[in-house]
Write a structure and sequence with these properties.
The complex is a heterodimer. Chain A is mainly alpha-helical. Chain A contains nine helices and no strands. Helices cover 74% and strands 0% of the residues of chain A. The chains are: A mainly alpha, B alpha+beta.
Chain lengths: 169, 388
């Protein structure tokens, strides 16, 4: 581990940590846990920095983020639907805040697996095979759980659909 | 709720997340972790030296007799650290009337004893530079690496003796996923290498490209299905299979380029994704996921891979999924003996082939694969059927 490694890692992490933090928050729905998750992922990247620096450190970090989150919810026990957490510190305006709280609350009605799949497929724009590989599940599961997650969102969060103008038209 | 709206909503939530300040802290933590590892390694090394001296001292009790290696190749050390506790062991439970064992975790695999095979090398080194060829010859495995856009970087073929060749693959397009035109997929999947190891099929858009690894011939076949990326082979290596209708995972239809259609119903518990089954006489083995095993509960995580054997005999090896670097761990490579199923186990950056004795439950390491450092985005492996 040389001084140049520290400088290049710190520069890379400083530039990419916000994007990774967004993903971590969507995966967890909890700012503090997202920060813990990201801290662990960045530490793992740092440990491998000499190998990753010339490759795809962000892809590796993202993979670790997702897999560590999977490990966390597997250790915790599955399918626990939690109360809506407070919105993360940051921007606040009434309408946008309300919409974000609705979305966050709706996401909490999903299983952890469904939530991870939606984040990877629709936020990270991962393909079905990439999502399957990252989560360690089959492509068929990705597809069926995507369908189930969207159906659950429609069922559990009708206010969201209303907000988007899908109801009553 | 359309997919586009889900995208917008997720982006809206994500945009409200304030930036963290973790870069310097992460580096400092990594330094501390490294120091702890170095310290732990030193303690283990000192402990090992002391233990060896102690054992030699006890055995060399004045009789002049020293311990000697037993020379048994099947018990050579597979990796650093001692082999796992002695096996065989009784099954952990019963599934479908047959014995079921909980298999090793990824971490435990590295400490398993080794198993020699006549058809698979003990190690595969993909890290060495090799020239490209269009005639690599019959192969036991094909490995492909992609870049972040799923452009194919290179395809490496591995012969029975471990010899590695790089396949010339000119003029291949990036493959679009018909489920979502913005997605791309790797042209090589886990079923691309024919079971006899003599042909390789790579997906393209509305066509597949077939390489004859022995003659060097290349054939471009147009396909009726636009979804060509899960292309595979029939067990006799005579026909190419193209799955369709995969939005419904309970129904896997298989179509040949000639237009014949059939439904895969070989697994009595229902069709799976295209994880190829391997048959030997009256026995079939296949890896599958998505099947919880309540009897084994939390020991497996929520998405174990099950190596299943059925027909004349039923047995299951359940591979825990709860590892730090979770990956789609396994698929069956073939039958290495009357009772021995070989399967690949994969984790981030780790590939190996393991042998499972379906009567005793014993699991051993057959092949360790070394990947190039530059293959750090995505790697896919496809194995021929090594049953003999």
């Amino acid at each position: 581990m040389v001084k140049g490694d520290e400088a290049s890692f710190t520069a890379w992490a400083a530039a990419r940590q916000h994007a990774l933090m967004r993903t971590a928050f969507l995966l967890t729905g909890d700012y503090q846990r997202a920060e813990d998750l990201l801290q662990d992922a960045l530490t793992k990247v740092a440990l491998r920095w000499s190998r990753l620096a010339d490759g795809q450190p962000e892809a590796y970090a993202r993979t670790i983020l997702v897999r560590d989150n999977v490990s966390w919810w597997r250790r915790r026990g599955r399918e626990i639907v939690v109360e809506a957490p407070p919105e993360p510190p940051g921007r606040h305006d009434t309408v946008a805040s309300e919409r974000r709280m609705l979305v966050t609350d709706a996401l909490n009605h999903l299983t952890d697996k469904q939530r991870s799949i939606l984040v990877l497929r629709f936020y990270e724009d991962f393909s079905v095979p990439q999502t399957a590989q990252t989560l360690g599940i089959s492509e068929g599961t990705v597809k069926s759980q995507t369908h189930a997650a969207l159906a659950r969102l429609r069922q559990k969060a009708p206010e969201l659909a209303e907000l988007l103008g899908e109801v009553g038209r | 709720m359309t997919e586009q709206r889900v995208r917008e909503l997720l982006t809206d939530v994500a945009d409200a997340v304030p930036p963290p300040d973790l870069a310097a802290r992460a580096w400092q933590r990594s330094v501390r972790v490294r120091r702890r590892r170095v310290a732990a390694t030193a303690v283990v090394a000192v402990g090992t030296v002391v233990a060896v001296i102690g054992v030699v001292g006890v055995l060399n009790d004045g009789s002049g007799t020293m311990p000697r290696p037993d020379g048994d190749q099947e018990t050579r050390m597979a990796a650093d650290g001692p082999p796992q506790a002695a096996l065989p062991r009784p099954p952990d439970t019963q599934i479908n009337g047959g014995p079921a064992w909980v298999g090793p975790t990824i971490e435990e695999e590295a400490r398993l004893p080794a198993h020699s095979s006549a058809v698979l090398p003990a190690s595969i080194d993909l890290a060495s530079s090799v020239p490209a060829t269009d005639k690599p010859g019959p192969s036991v495995a094909a490995f492909a690496a992609s870049d972040s856009e799923n452009h194919l970087k290179e395809v490496m073929l591995v012969a029975h003796d471990g010899h590695v060749s790089r396949l010339e693959t000119p003029n291949l397009d990036i493959v679009h996923n018909p489920d979502n035109g913005n997605d791309t997929v790797l042209p090589l999947n886990i079923s691309s290498l024919s079971p006899d190891g003599r042909k390789l099929v790579l997906a393209q858009n509305h066509e597949v490209v077939v390489y004859d690894l022995v003659s060097g011939a290349r054939q471009d076949l147009p396909t009726r299905n636009e979804e060509s990326y899960n292309v595979g082979w029939t067990p006799d290596s005579s026909e190419i299979q193209l799955p369709k209708g995969v939005m419904n995972p309970d129904t896997l239809q298989i179509t040949t380029p000639q237009g014949q259609t059939q439904v895969d119903s070989s697994d009595p518990d229902g069709p799976t994704d295209i994880w190829p089954p391997r048959t030997r006489g009256e026995l079939t083995a296949q890896a599958r996921s998505d099947q919880p095993v309540p009897a084994l509960g939390s020991r497996l995580g929520t998405d174990p891979v099950l190596i299943r054997v059925w027909r004349a005999q039923r047995a299951t090896l359940a591979l825990p999924s709860d590892t730090e670097d979770l990956g789609p761990r396994s698929r069956v490579v073939g039958w290495l003996g009357p009772d021995d199923v070989a399967f690949q186990s994969q984790d981030y950056g780790t590939y190996r082939v393991l042998d499972w004795d379906t009567h005793t439950g014993e699991v051993r390491v057959v092949t360790n694969v070394t990947l190039p450092d530059s293959w750090n985005h995505g790697v896919t492996a496809s194995w021929a059927d090594v049953s003999h």
